[in-house]
Amino acid sequence: MNNYSLKCRGIGCLLLIALLLLCSAGCSESVGSQGEPDQIGVVSAVDQERSGLLFINEYEGGHAYRTPSGTFLVLDLRGSWTHMGRQYGGLAGEDLRLFHDRIVADLTSRGVSGDHQLATAQELFDSLSPELQELLKGMSETSGLTMDEVMVLNAGVILLTDAILSDRLPGLPDDAPAGCSGIGVWDQYTEDGSVIFGRNWDIDRASMKEYMEFLSVVVLHPDDGYSYANIHPLGNVYLETGMNEFGLFIELNNGAHSDPAEPADRQNTASVLVDVLRECRDVEEAVLMLKAIPADLSYILQIADPAKAVSLERGTFDARVRDHDDEGLVIAVNHFIPPYPPEWSAWIQPPRTDEDDPRYSNMLRLAQSPAYMGHFNLELMQEYLMVPIEEGGAYHAGTVYQVVAVPDTLTIWLHACEYAGWEEIPLASLLG
């Protein structure tokens, strides 16, 4: 597993290794529509030490890096939302164009018309916060994409998910929803007591893996809030997995099985999560903020900080922090976990049975087994996430990518299934 940053004493050695790695990975530096990058593959020892990544380019004060193998793009953006959008587009324009054209062609081949793509993209854009709208507008100024193209790319994964789910999700029961799973461990479950969080992002690997070259980590330093990292395909500015400068980590799971309601005129949760990371320092602050905002759709939100993790079952009618599955353990899939508050009975659907969806029971049983309980560390969490559903885990044909987060050290590891191995992304210096 690729969990080690490159270290080199001399700038000459550093440059040689960087160029060799980039060439061997077949990665090209991306520039926007405003001209050639200021620097390609050249970086000071200070910059390399600060990021632990391979420096690629600079644009209007923003920086682009790649992980040591050259697999994943990491952007570091700073300033106003429009300015950060300009940096985004200027640094990643070629990749954004390639991603846009490929996913639009895919959607069109699946019968999703251009008019529907744009209408869905506009609806998503309108649901985002003014800050994220400004970010997307800034991207359109420097990326070489029109504003309509920027919006369609932002909605591309959502559109593709809808198209995929018009058929059945392979590897799970016929009526299984799109969804994800997560596990937080600490205290008696980890070898040193620290918090480790593991997350599976699930839709359909066969359909999604060709887009994993665009999986990225974008670090934003807004003028008006805390810095945060968004772990998402390029050009997707809403948030489903992220961490801020205090080690506050959030991941989102679909909860529509338990509460399928879709009330109108509420804030988009994936936009609200950006505000949570911009404004909150720990689990308690995040929970209070999320409980105070009515949900547009039902989600199960896992929230972790350097001290603990919780699962917030956030329905459209109410929200609660569910009791831990054990001291130092929280597990979540795509339905709320009973027992429920009595007043929820009129609103909530029964959970899936183990026969229909064994992931929750599998994950709980596996985490409490002698092989894992008390022994969780980085490597063991990665191993845990890869245990197939047929062998008592949660990994299945829908699992597209996986994230392991250690809030205390501001570090994440990213794995694109059947595309690349685990890669370390050290966020501490980037978020600082």
Task: Work out the helicity level.
Answer: 25-40%
- Side by side, the strands of the main sheet go 1-2-3-6-7-8-9-10-11-12
In the CATH scheme, what's the topology name of the largest domain?
A: Penicillin V Acylase, Chain A
> Helix count, per DSSP?
13
Biggest sheet overview: 10 strands, mixed
Radius of gyration: 21 Å
Shape: globular
Order of helices and strands: HHEEEHHHHHEEHEEEEHHEEEEHHEEEH
Characterization of the model:
The chain is of the alpha+beta class and 432 residues long. It has 2 domains: 81-164, no CATH class; 181-211 and 237-431, 4-Layer Sandwich (Penicillin V Acylase, Chain A). Helices cover 33% and strands 21% of the residues. The protein has helices spanning 11-25, 45-51, 81-109, 114-127, 130-142, 147-154, 156-164, 205-208, 269-279, 283-292, 359-367, 378-385, 428-431; strands at 54-59, 62-66, 73-79, 181-185, 196-202, 215-222, 228-233, 241-244, 249-254, 299-304, 309-314, 319-322, 329-332, 399-406, 411-416, 423-426. The protein has a 10-stranded mixed β-sheet, sandwiched between helices. Helix 9 packs across helix 10 (283-292). It is globular. Residues 1-46 and 169-177 have low confidence and may be disordered.
Strand and helix map with partners:
Elements: H1 11-25, H2 45-51, E1 54-59, E2 62-66, E3 73-79, H3 81-109, H4 114-127, H5 130-142, H6 147-154, H7 156-164, E4 181-185, E5 196-202, H8 205-208, E6 215-222, E7 228-233, E8 241-244, E9 249-254, H9 269-279, H10 283-292, E10 299-304, E11 309-314, E12 319-322, E13 329-332, H11 359-367, H12 378-385, E14 399-406, E15 411-416, E16 423-426, H13 428-431
Parallel strand pairs: 3-6
Antiparallel strand pairs: 1-2, 2-3, 4-5, 4-13, 5-14, 6-7, 7-8, 8-9, 9-10, 10-11, 11-12, 14-15, 15-16
Helix pairs in contact: 3-5, 3-6, 3-7, 4-6, 5-6, 9-10
